[in-house]
Amino acid sequence: MTSVLRPWRSVLYIPGSKERALEKARGLDVDAIIFDLEDAVAPGEKAAARATLADALAQGGYGSRARLVRVNGGDTPWGADDLAATMDMAPDAILLPKVDSAAQVAAVAAQLDAHPGCGDVAIWAMMETTRGVFNAAEIAQAPRMGGFIMGTNDLAAELGCDTGGDRMPLMMALQTCLAAARMGGIPCVDGVFNAFKDDDGLRAECQQGRALGMDGKTLIHPAQVAICNEVFSPSEAEIDTAKRQIEAFERAEADGQGVAVLDGKIVENLHVATARKVLAKAGA
Ligand SMILES: CC(C)(COP(=O)(O)OP(=O)(O)OC[C@H]1O[C@@H](n2cnc3c(N)ncnc32)[C@H](O)[C@@H]1OP(=O)(O)O)[C@@H](O)C(=O)NCCC(=O)NCCSC(=O)C[C@H](O)C(=O)O
Ligand SMILES: [Mg+2]
Predict the structure, then answer these.
(1) Which superfamily does CATH assign the domain made up of 10-231 to?
(2) What is the ipTM of this complex?
(3) pTM value?
(4) Interval between CA 154 and ligand 2 midpoint (Å)
(5) Who lines ligand 1 at CB under 6 A?
(6) Record-annotated residues binding Mg(2+) (predicted)?
(7) How far apart are CA 177 and CA 183, in angstroms?
(8) DSSP class of 72
């Protein structure tokens, strides 16, 4: 669950209150699902959503898709009940919103430690506050930490910046959290693209996220899945280059060389390590 090499290309939010969407997700080609009890569920529906979601997860049928449940924050009227109910659902991970500090994560980890059946349940963090961005390095190394999800809407709201276009105003936050995730050895999944009928815009933002180094993107609608999977999957050309880099380097090593040359470019140990990650990702 915590491995960066598990695929995290497409991570779809589903409101915990929407039975039809919970059903539909069993057949969608996504790598992970965020079952949401937080922002996608209206205050008056919180309790009913918890029950609906518990039924759906008990029924199962989500296959190898990672199952993350996003609870409301501990400082809200619903946080404690969400956490108690979610621990009984035994998902793959509990996703905490608006994480500011590693201490917040540690407090939830202690509750999981004390709860039977939660031995393998990871904690993921929504990185969507300015305080969280500045504490990203310690959050990435908090107990049970499984990965980061960028919350670009909340971040933009707090920063007072524009989310559209090239996302330049968000770059510092995106890159800081990504670097912290890499330091902690956990995945980092990009924020949502709100205009779910704009395929070209989605593709451009997926490509940007991939170029930054993100493991995948969070999605809000099934229509976004195919483009996201395509962009975040290693292409045939990348797989071919990775295989040839490994072969070229192994040949060079056998000849007592530390560096190989392929297609006019040097191939060193670090390129081979990256090539192996590409192949592992493609295999996953
Ligand atoms: C955006 C939506 C409200 C649109 O819903 P709807 O009008 O029902 O869409 P469609 O009629 O086009 O739906 C077609 C079918 O697809 C199913 N569906 C829709 N959305 C989902 C979904 N997310 N997962 C699974 N299935 C879905 C419909 O049931 C239809 O099925 P069928 O009847 O068989 O045709 C809606 O898409 C939606 O609610 N999306 C999720 C919104 C959400 O979760 N928001 C919160 C997360 S984003 C966030 O919080 C970011 C972060 O915190 C930050 O700060 O940035
Ligand atoms: Mg948010």
Answers:
(1) Phosphoenolpyruvate-binding domains (3.20.20.60)
(2) 0.98
(3) 0.94
(4) 5
(5) 12-15, 20-21, 24-25, 36, 39-40, 126, 128, 151-154, 191-192, 196, 220-222
(6) 128, 154
(7) 10
(8) P
